[in-house]
Amino acid sequence: MTVGAGGHAEALLESGVRRVAGVDRDPDALAAASERLARFGDRFVSVQARFSEVPRIVDEASLRAVEGTLYDLGVSSLHLDRPERGFSYRSEGPLDMRMGPGGRSARDIVHETPEEDLADLIYRYGEERASRRIARAIVRARERAPIETTAELARIVAAAAGRRRGGPHPARRTFQALRIAVNEETEELTASLPQAVGVLEPGGRIAVISYHSIEDRIVKRALASDDRLEVLTKKPVRPRPEEQERNRRARSAKLRVARRAA
After folding, report:
1. H or E segment at 206?
2. Per-residue pLDDT tens digits of the chain, which is 262 residues long
3. Which among 3, 51, 121, 220 is placed 20 to 30 Å from 41, CA to CA?
4. Does residue 109 sit in the same domain as residue 52?
């Protein structure tokens, strides 16, 4: 959860795990993972679902027992590297950001959300201090003409927020906020974690890799407050410098693990 391109699933299968159910709401990701993992035969099964559908996932994958669940949160390289999916502020693409079919797009949110609510959304999900200034700029721009592409939105945000030399792109937090809102990521994660614990066998483990503080806070609280769990990571595990060098997108990753006690 989510299987993405299948890298974690491949490592688990190669390590001897008997069977892996790869879950993703994106049919393109499931197709890519299934192709990559075809050599494992029926030891890998793909399931198109949201995080909050754990009972259906277990049933559809015909899992008699669940010994472990791995969450790999956030957006995948499959999304970031394809401009037509509309996730990247660095590439020209439609203002979409949907991880799966259906639902509201980023364009819908940008055009339909009142200014104050838009500012709150950008602050809550992006932790962006300039959220009110950015929301005001977006509303003024959409009153002049529809905002259709990621590049258009990135320019509007950059002009409103300003850019520090050598700092991250000023649109990074706003794009994160919109992506989280479009895909209801915090709601899905909050609903999913206790469901996942509920289907674990005694001694089974739940591991979660998060990539920003909003996700990590949800995970930390959920694992610590669940009486069925023993938390195994007092502090989150961070990637080593050499791993960060190999994969720059892993720089912000935090891994937390817990074991079902009963």
Report:
1. strand 200-210
2. 999 989 999 999 999 999 999 999 999 999 999 999 999 999 999 999 999 999 999 999 999 889 999 999 987 777 777 888 888 888 899 999 999 888 899 999 999 999 999 999 999 999 999 999 999 999 999 999 999 999 999 999 999 998 777 678 899 999 999 999 999 999 999 999 999 999 999 999 999 999 999 999 999 999 999 999 999 999 999 999 888 888 887 888 999 999 999 7
3. 51
4. no
Question: How many separate domains does the chain show?
Answer: 2
What residues does 70 pair with on adjacent strands? 207
Query: Last residue of a domain, which of 183, 201, 235?
Result: 183
Q: Please report, to the nearest 10 degrees, the dihedral formed by the alpha carbons of residues 215, 219, 221, 222 taken in order.
A: 130
- Domain of 231, CATH number, reads 3.40.50.150
Q: Are 73 and 81 in contact (CB under 8 A)?
A: no
Range of the domain at 139: 85-183
| Single-letter amino acid, residue 92 | E
Q: Residue 168: give its domain's CATH number.
A: 1.10.150.170
Query: What SS3 class is residue 238?
Result: coil
57 within 8 A of 26, measured Cβ to Cβ: no
**End-to-end distance of the chain based on CA atoms, in angstroms?**
23
Can you name the residues that pair with 149 across neighbouring β-strands?
94
